[in-house]
Amino acid sequence: MILFLSQYPHTEEQFRDGFYQRVINIDNFFKEEERVYLDVQLIRNFKKTVYRKENRIVYSCNLILNFYLILKLFNKASIIYIQSLHNVFYNFFFIRMMRKKYVLDLHGVVPEELEMQNQVIKSKIYNLMERMIHNRIDICIAVTKKLAHHYTIKYPLSKTKYIIYSILPNNIENTPIDILELSENKKLNVIYSGNTQPWQNIDLMLRKIKETNSDKIIYTILTGELKKMNDLLLTYNLQHRENIKVFSVEPSELSSFYKECSYGFILRDDVIINNVACPTKLIEYLNYGIIPIVLSDNIGDFKELGYESIDINDFNGNLPNRKSSINRNIIGRMIVENNIDLKSVIYSILIR
What residues contact 155, with CB distance under 8 A and at least 6 apart? Predict the structure, then answer.
């Protein structure tokens, strides 16, 4: 039995979330196996819930009330797959106590993310937990080569093996670049796809939109936070502009917008969190030949892969209306490289 330390998605919102898309993706490799998902909480899950579907069982448990059940599941598991360091917190005691085969999925650098969010104490706790379990981890699945390199530097004595397996959104279409070509006579279409979190630098984006706003450009903003985004547009006096459109759409609808766009905002600061990341948004942009408008081009492995981008200071309404075959081909190669039997790779390492 494989024990996954994670929730399994059950709501529509969760199925759209990038984290849970990763959970589903990994789950598909092991669908012939008996799988148990374990969501442990301390001040929630006072009533244990169990959901069964085919070979998958999902438990929502309380750490105190269901202590012996959790212990039993750890005992029974042949492999324990930890979906993110966040899922270590309430399972830390069991991971430290139980000698098992452990796989840790590295979606990013959790302690550094928490520190950037000014959660300093929490960051120190997660950093300590990470350090204390790292000698237990047999395999780390990293979303970028840079992320794997970061951890080999951070823990130079660790014997952990690293596998690079990127997060590729479920909604991307493998569309030939010639079908994506744009008419030179069309207006410049610029897109932003995402929400209003601080690391998205929305204020900087809106200042740039205000600075470059003209009838030559159509700006499309796709967000799950319509009210917040419209309030921000109001702050910058950009509301009710015919060439600035704001929508909330389903993942399946994104491609129709991406196909019409030449450029897309992804304004990430040049910090470790972004340097090792594999943003879903950037994957989507490149897949449709969109040229990212960046604050820093040092995002994940993409600079080394040679992606085309444009600095925000160089963006203006006189740029050519075009798609990037370079960006489209990068994602084409990533799709091929990601086409591995992850289960077989994991098993080949664990049985050595």
Answer: 131, 134
User: Length of the chain in residues, anyone?
Assistant: 352
Tokens representing residue 4 in the block: 């996954």
Give the pLDDT mean for 111-136. 92
pLDDT at residue 221 in the model? 96
Residue type, 180: L
Average pLDDT taken over every residue of the chain: 91
Q: Quickly tell me which residue has 């917190």 as its tokens.
A: 89
Looking at domain 2-165, its CATH superfamily turns out to be: Glycogen Phosphorylase B; (3.40.50.2000)
Fold equal for 2-165 and 177-336: yes
CATH of the domain spanning 177-336, picked from 1.20.140.10, 3.40.190.80, 3.40.50.2000, 3.40.50.970:
3.40.50.2000
| Sign of the CA dihedral running 50, 52, 57, 58 | negative
- Residues 52, 258: Cα–Cα separation, whole Å: 38
Q: What is the pLDDT of residues 217-260, one digit of tens each?
A: 999 999 989 999 999 999 999 888 888 999 998 888 898 999 99
Q: Give φ, ψ of 54 to 5 degrees.
A: 55, -120
Please answer whether residues 330 and 301 qualify as being in contact, where contact means their C-beta atoms are separated by less than 8 angstroms.
Answer: no
- Locate the domains of the chain by residue range: 2-165, 177-336
Q: Residue 119 — φ and ψ, nearest 5°? A: -100, 70
pLDDT band at 178 (very low <50, low <70, confident <90, very high): low
Residues 53 and 32 sit within 8 Å (Cβ to Cβ): no
Strands 49-53, 56-62: pairing is antiparallel
The secondary structure of residue 246, as a DSSP letter, is: E
- What is the distance between the alpha carbons of residues 239 and 243, in angstroms, rounded to a whole number? 10
CB atoms near residue 275 (< 10 Å): 20
Strand ranges for 223-311 from DSSP E: 244-247, 263-266, 291-294, 310-311
- Taking only Cα atoms into account, the Rg of the chain, rounded to an integer number of angstroms, comes to 22
| pTM for this entry | 0.88
